[in-house]
Amino acid sequence: MKFGRKNRRENQLGSLPVQTVPKDRQTGFEMFQKYETGCRAERELYSSLREAVPIIDAALLKIVRLIGRFQIKTESKVCQKTADDFIKNVKINGSSAGINNFIYTYLDSLLTYGEAVGEMIPYADGSGICALYNASLDDVEIRADKSPLDLVVCCNSSGELAPVKNRQLVLATLLNPKAGTVHGTSIMSGLPFVSSILLRIFKSIKTNWERVGDVRFAVTYNPDSNVTFSEENAKQIADEWKKAMRSDSVCDFVSVGDVSIKVIGAESQMPDCEIPVRNILEQILAKLGIPPFLLGLSWSSTERMSEQQADILTSELEYYRAIVEPVISKIVTMHLRLCGFNCGFEIEWDDINLQDTLELSQARYNNARALQLEAGNETEVIDE
To answer: How far apart are CA 358 and CA 363, in angstroms?
Structure first.
């Protein structure tokens, strides 16, 4: 019932325009001419990296999902009711609802690019927050104001950067900024080099399988010394061979004379790439802070090691929670004050419990290990 009343209220009051979207995109005109910067090229690199290496994308999504959900606890029942309704029903980017979805997208941008920008969209009469918007980093830029302690978000409109008017409605966070700069550091920094090696190995595997899997033959015709060699004979043999190879069913190749057929590249063997690929994946997962067992990798890992890795991951998740908590606090504080409340509140996160994930990963490992042992036993029986 509350949700329905809120919808009628939104239709009547409307909301203020979004500041972090260029005006020419809001009005439907063609996208403005984007400027090229090092930061933009770096973002494109990280986006391409997530698309090219699936394990990186899976690890980042796993971190975002494992951060969990949160609740707001206030001192007043009336204020608590308002906060619960806002946490559950606030619009997110025009396609979903719930502040948790906003935080997930915000954290995903923060991990991928080292920066995240969002905006609170209030009702037109200022009676609360109508929606939350995750801004694209291609449309905005975080800069230092007159003081390096004061950050300002600038919007790129018609090729010119200008600070947003209502700064109190804009959210910005930097991940691990370097000293003296206002630019965050992506969690994927340092991965392009090792990822390029991994992609090169995969490309070589693809090329080798194309050569070995799609068998090619060398057909050689050696005419007898007593028989006169003619081009027509060679062409006839070549045509018969092509006919036999292109047939949909099994077809014999019959020829007269000394004809030898050899497989091209039959002597060469596929190089073993399991060890180098595993070493590279270990480097990638170590940088991302994700234990291999959470991604279903059946590497040799005892249960004790898995528990230690789970403890390390828990500390990583608590660190990311601490980073996004100021954003959550600013959003909730703004909404409650616009609604006329000035009560305090606390952010309560769900307990981080990797036990279910740990047991599922352990079960996957045991199954993979059992299959490996069964395959080894079958090989020993065949050898005997």
So the answer is: 9
Quote the Cα angle for 59-65-71, to 5°: 155
Q: Which residue has the tokens 């050898």?
A: 383
Tokens of 101: 């979805």
Cβ atoms of 318 and 325 closer than 8 Å = no
Q: Which residues contact 173 (CB under 8 A, 6 or more apart)?
A: 106, 110, 115, 116, 184, 323, 324, 326, 327
Q: Which of 54, 49, 312, 38 is nearest to 191 (CA)?
A: 49
Q: Which residue ranges make up each domain of the chain? A: 2-190+316-352, 217-263
Of the pLDDT bands very low, low, confident and very high (cuts 50, 70, 90), residue 8 is very low
Distance CA 130, CA 123 (A): 5
For residue 190, give both structure tokens: 């340092």
- What whole-number percentage of the chain has pLDDT above 70? 76
Q: How many residues does the chain have?
A: 384
Question: Distance of CA 352 to CAs 150, 294, 297, 313, Å?
Answer: 34, 14, 22, 10
Tell me what the mean pLDDT of segment 122-149 comes to. 88
Q: Is the CB of residue 185 less than 8 Å from the CB of residue 287?
A: no
